[in-house]
Amino acid sequence: MLSLVVLISGGGSNLRALLDAASDAEFPARILAVGADRDAEGLAHAEEFGIPTFTVPYTSFGSRDEWGEALLEQIRVWDADVVVLSGLMRLLPASVVSALSPNLINTHPAYLPEFPGAHAVRDAIAAGATESGASIIVVDNGVDTGSIIVQERVPVAPGDTEHSLHERIKPVERRLLVQTVLDIANGLDLRTI
Question: Catalytic center at which residues (predicted)?
């Protein structure tokens, strides 16, 4: 059984998809804990499913490295097989990436390497793109530059706003994340990506 720790910053819609999938006894992965860098709304999803949560507030530390050390300490308590960044809106320090890689994956609402960074959907709209997408990657020390595990295109409709496009990307992102976790549980070796 594959074990996961999931890290979030916001509402946790991708987390919810994983929790729903993992609630099926046939799904070969379990979420051990959910962590956040702030008091995130999405922690309520974990609590609803009886999953332990932890918060390591970024603002409580003097530097990103100090925050990363505290976060890594919390992650290590759970001894998970894979750590999923599911809407965590902080760059992890290199020391954290090195400690967890390659078993550290991230969701991204764009067809990478197009539109990396925190504002991918807004950037796609601003660029007049006709397509965007969703990607699941192995995290490295760049900004959304890790090896791509899976991705899928999502068309940009005429008149799309950042919100409307993001709402169409989210279901694709959720589906790809659940499938990626299933693939890892069934033997996909992240070291070969």
Answer: 108
